[in-house]
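#struct-help
A.M.: can someone run this one for me? Single chain, 290 residues.
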Amino acid sequence: MASNKNKKGLGKGIDAIFSEFEAIDENSETVVDLSLEDIRPNPYQPRKTFDEHALNELARSIQQNGVFQPIIVRESVNGFEIIAGERRFRASKIAEQKTIPAIIRPLSESGMMEIAVLENLQREDLTPLEEADAYQTLITKLNLTQEQVSQRLGKSRPYIANYLRLLNLPPATKKLVQNGDLSMGQARTLLSLKDKDQIDKLAKKAVSEDLTVRQLEQLATETKHDSKKRKKTVSTKSPYIRATEEKLVEKFDTPVSVRESRKGSGKLEIDFSNTKDLNRILDLLGIKLD
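D.P.: on it. Structure tokens below:
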């Protein structure tokens, strides 16, 4: 069980949840061996990724020494659901064990959910997206407001809101955040853009060029400014010019602008994000540089 020191940063909510455990005399509880086939992970587990290297190390230890600390489960319609100890459960499966020591405790659905979220938040090693999903789970499943979640966890409402905003990122950028390639600060900067294609493009650029948050902020500002200029320009373009731009964007897979002057001359602009992208465009144009 988590110590009082660890609980402190998560407000009064976790003390209320863990009181369900503390009311039980642990010395009177019985440890039973349950079949791994009868156990399922907590459906409200916010953690989506587990360190495979650490799991394999734990599996080797379990093969040699067994599981020292029982997992905690609750009885469900089809077997048991894990309250605490999913790493031990996963490692035992890797170690090809048939059973695992467990303690069966009664717990309500809402208590099950909050234990899963709060236990993981205590460890502070969730990815930003996993943390955002955890807050969203509490809001959706328990019908809480952001303010209620912030009070329950002892965090400010803006803190909760900033994490929840990450859920609005497009899938490709979310993946970069989940993998740790894009930081929380970078992701928040990208959310200032409305166009999801622009977000994905700048996210890839931030990763490939190792941009700082400040550099990314500058690029995002420039992108928003350029978008406003383009929208204003597009409104005055003829259908032929707009159709031409669409075809060029399709061919080069990058923003393209065609500007026509009253005299019949004009300007063609093809955007590129870096030297590699420029070389790709040159190849499409059939231009070879010595």
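A.M.: thanks! The chain is about 55% helix and 10% strand.
D.P.: also worth noting: The two ends are 67 Å apart (CA to CA).
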